[in-house]
Amino acid sequence: MDNDHIKLLQKLVSFDTVTPASIEAVRYCKELLDSWGIETYIHQSGNVPNLVGYLNRGSETLCIAGHLDVVVPGNEWTYNPFELTEHAGKLYGRGTNDMKGPLSSALIAARDFIKQSSNLSIIILLTGDEEVMTDNGMKSLMEYVNQRYNNFLIGIIPESCSPRNSGEYIKVGCRGSINVRLISQAPQGHVACTQNNHLHKFINTVNALVNLRLDSGNNDFEPSLLQLTSIDVGNNARNIVPGNITAKFNIRFNNIRSSAELKQIVSDLIPEYINVDISTLSEPFIGCSNEWQKKLQTIAEKSLNKPIGIGTIGGNSDAQTLHKYMNVVEIGSPLAQAHTTDEFITLSDMDKLRKLYYDVFVGLSS
Ligand SMILES: [Zn+2]
User: Fold this and answer.
1) What is the pLDDT of residue 59?
2) Domains detected in the chain
3) How remote is the C-alpha of 328 from its chain's centroid?
4) Please, are residues 284 and 295 in contact by the beta-carbon 8 Å criterion?
5) Residues annotated as catalytic (active site), given as ranges
6) How many angstroms is it from 318 CA to the middle of ligand 1?
7) CB of 61 within 8 A of CB of 149?
8) CA 366, CA 362: separation in Å to the nearest integer?
9) CA 12 – ligand 1 centroid, Å
10) What are the two backbone dihedrals, phi and then psi, of residue 75, each rounded to the nearest 5 degrees?
């Protein structure tokens, strides 16, 4: 095996693509795909550059989709987050795990696959804002793509998504997400003479929400879970009863109840004096048929010679949009290494994923 997937990762990490992705990174990928004989087009939507690459070889089209943007590095990195650094078998840099590493392995696997004769067409979609998911990324790109290309066989997203080792999990859907914000307002007062401290009552409401047991999950999904993410009173003094209190929650929910039912359950627990704002960010979905799940599992198990898990554990991704157009799965690096300080992927995982993606592409075309 050559090390072109490592060289590509090194190049991709060198672009600062904190959301949205930089046009330089997109141009680099465009030129790379051009050099492989793939027709490319930069689809700019708002401030987000996205890339489409298409190679026509037959009526059915394999889709490989990924994102070039990354989250902010944050502090206390040992290494320069925008320079790939190898140390003791690990490759450090922002995006190495999520998802420039798996994506580099998948793109080089696609290049090798193109060299083989096959009547499977290929479409490559690279988006620039997956980490914030505005309408300018995959949503806008698919509106463009769907008017020009169709007959998608399946979509493979080389995403950071595995709750186990690299490549040993096929993510086939995702729980939905709801944000809840509570606001209580009362006159600020002196602790010595305030009769009804609304913070006391507010905490009871927070407790009622935190203690909610929504369901115990089903075959496809983990249990729905409410998490308290912030309580803010903005008070640094010891002798003031605060005037404004805000609390924020997020609910990750499965398909046992609809988002409307969950909103009702939450609203019923909120007393009238508290303002509540509930917004649905995404609905739960299964993005891949059982038949395709089994087929991919068989190919992957044969490639890695290991049992491969299937499930919906983990966070949201561009699969949220892509599944509306085709069967789609995510296969990639361990999610626990995403968004971390000193983010890394191992050299052996880069090789392992490149081989796996190649075997999947070949397996799908036969
Ligand atoms: Zn990602």
Assistant:
1) 87
2) 4-174+284-365 (3.40.630.10), 176-281 (3.30.70.360)
3) 13
4) no
5) 69, 130
6) 8
7) yes
8) 7
9) 14
10) -100, 175
> What residues of the chain score a pLDDT lower than 70?
none
- Structure confidence at residue 150 (pLDDT): 86
φ, ψ of residue 308 in degrees (nearest 5) = -110, 125
Those residues with Cβ within 8 angstroms of residue 194's Cβ, 6 or more apart along the chain or in another chain: 241
Tell me the C-alpha distance between 345 and 8, whole Å: 14
CA distance 243 to 313: 40
231-262 pLDDT, tens per residue?
999 999 999 999 999 999 999 999 999 999 99
d(CA 27, CA 277): 41
The pLDDT of residue 116? 92
**What pLDDT, on a 0 to 100 scale, did the predictor assign at position 42?**
98
Distance 233 CA to ligand 1 centre (A): 33
The Å distance, Cα 322 to ligand 1 centre, comes to: 14
Phi, psi of 176 (to 5 degrees): -85, 175
Residue whose token pair is 């190898």: 86
CA distance 98 to 333: 8
pTM: 0.90
CA of 96 to the centre of ligand 1 (A): 10
Measured CA to CA, the distance from residue 90 to residue 87 in angstroms comes to 5
Dihedral in degrees, nearest 10, Cα atoms 65, 71, 76, 81: 50
Which residues sit opposite 328 in a β-bridge? 155
